[in-house]
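Continuing the batch. This is chain 6 of the set; chains 1 through 5 are on the previous pages. Same settings as before, nothing changed between runs. Recording input and output for traceability.
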Amino acid sequence: MNSVLDLFRLDGKVAIVTGASSGFGAAFAEAFAQAGADLALGARRADRLEQTRERVVARGRRAVAVPTDVSDPAACQALVDAAVCELGRVDVLINNAGIGAAVPALRESPEEFRAVIDVNLNGPYWMAQAAAGAMTQGGAIINVSSIAAIISLGLPQAAYSASKAGLIGLTRDLAQQWTGRRAIRVNAVLPGLFETEMTSDWFAEKFDEQLPRIPVGRGGTASELAATVLFLASDAASYITGQTLVVDGGRTIL
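Output for chain 6:
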C-alpha cells in the first residue's frame, strides 16, 4: 500500500513554469525537480533562465529553457510545444510570470495599464489555452495571483490589483470548463508579503508598517509558497479545483 506521502510526488510528470528566471519561478522549478518532475522553463531573461535550468539538471531531472514573453500567444504555444517535443508531455502549468506597477491612477497611461494586464492576466490565459491542448491525460494548472486581488496594501496599484483579481475569475471559469471534461484541475494561490526581486523596493519602504498586521510575525519564504504550489499540482490535491488558496501568514484576516 502506497504512503500518503507518495501523493505529493510528481515522478514521471512534466511541469511548465513561467517567470522561471528568478524569484518564485526559480523556487518552483527546484521544488518540482525535488518532487520528481521534469521541467519546461519560460521567462524573458535567457541568461537567468539558463541558470534555473542548470539547477534543475543538477538535481537529476530533465529541463528545457525557452525564452518566453507570455503576452505573445505564439511564444506561449512555442513553450508548450518545446515541452512536448523535448520532454514528451505536459501535466502541470504554473502561471507565475508577472510584472508590477505602482503608478497613481490619474497618471497611469493606457500603455502602462495594458502592459501589466497583458503579462499578468492575458499571458496566463494564452498559456492555459496552449497547455490544456497538450494535457491529453489530464493535469493541473496553478495561477499565481496575489492578496492585492482582495485587499489594498496602500500603494497605487490599479493595473496590478485588477490583473490579479482577474486571475481569480479566470481560475474559476477554466475549472468549470475543463475539470469535468478534460480532467484538468485549475486553482490559484494568493501570496501575501514575500520578498522577491520584484518586491524588494516595496519591502524596504513599507514592510515595517505591515508587519504588525501579519499574525505569523514575518514575511513568507519562497520555499513556503513552492510547497503550497507543489501540493496543488500533486495528486494530494486531486479533489480541489476552482479554488483560491491564500498564503499570507494571516495578513488578510486583520
